[in-house]
Each structure stands twice: as C-alpha cells, then as structure tokens.
Write a structure and sequence with these properties.
Shape: globular
CATH architecture: 2-Layer Sandwich
Largest sheet: 6 strands, antiparallel
Distance between the termini: 33 Å
C-alpha cells in the first residue's frame, strides 16, 4: 500500500445553491474511500473569472490520500457528476467544479491531468483559499498578481 500523499483540491460552484453545494462537496469528499479531508478553507464569493454566470462560491480542501493522482481525479469527477455537472462548453456555469491543484510534489502533464494545476497562480479564487490551508505555498507576490480580481470571504457560511 502506498504512503499517504497530501493533495489540495479547489471547490467552486455558481449554479443553484452554490454555498450548500460546496459545503456538501466537502462532506462527500470526506466520505470517499482513500481520502481524508485534513483541512478546509473558508468559503469565498467571487465574480466569474474567465467564466460566465452568477458569482461563484469557492474554497480549497487539503486531503491526505493513498489514491493515485488519476484515481483522485476520477473521484472528483464522480462527485461533480453526482451534482449534475454538465460541460456544454469551456468555462460554462457549473453546479460544482473540483480541481486537483497539487498532489504532493508531483509534476505531470497528460491529456487528462496536469500537476500542479497550470493556472493556480493566476486566480484569486484559488490563491486566497489555498492560503487558508497552505499559507507557506502562497506568497505575497502571488496575491499581488491577482489583486485586481474581486474576492470576499463569504460571511453567511458556517465552515
């Protein structure tokens, strides 16, 4: 059996009750065999960035897993599917979006999965919640780069 790997997952939703969907996704992720949720960021509200539709609710989970990175991706996509996620076009509004940001220190590039996530440093909706659960990874220069992207802590959520 493989040693546990610490990985980070971005969660986001902007259709339906996005806040409830993201909170439920944390719980569903924690019930996945081989995945242990060891940290949860606050929830954040953001305007769509390179996407369409209403505001998003975003967060990041820190997980420990014995699953391979492709198996974690399969689990994430299964959870998305359970919420009715459709992919009619790139960056369409979504009931739930789960992105594997980091898988230990793995670097990989395949048609299906690139690690670390190729755009993690370009998005406030990833960087700000990631700083909640992995502050050593997010530098001041990273946050300065995305300072023009509106993001606010979701005060209505009880995380």
């Amino acid at each position: 059996m493989r040693d546990p790997v610490t990985a980070y997952v971005a969660l986001g939703a902007n259709l339906g009750d996005a806040r409830s969907t993201v909170l439920q996704a944390f719980e569903t992720l924690a019930r996945e065999p081989g995945i242990d949720v060891t940290g949860r960021s606050a929830l954040y509200r953001t305007a769509p960035h390179e996407a369409q539709g209403p505001d998003f609710i975003n967060a990041v989970a820190r997980i420990d897993t014995r699953l391979s990175a492709p198996d974690v991706l399969d689990a994430l996509q299964a959870i998305e599917h359970q919420t009715g996620r459709l992919r009619p076009y790139v960056n369409a509004p979504r009931t739930l979006d789960l992105d594997l940001l980091f898988y230990g220190d793995a670097c990989m590039h395949s048609p299906r999965l690139t690690l670390p996530h190729p755009r993690w440093r370009e998005r406030a909706f990833v960087l700000v919640p990631l700083a909640d659960v992995w502050p050593q990874r997010v530098g001041a220069e990273d946050l300065a780069r995305v300072a023009g992207q509106a993001i606010e802590r979701d005060r209505a959520a009880h995380t």
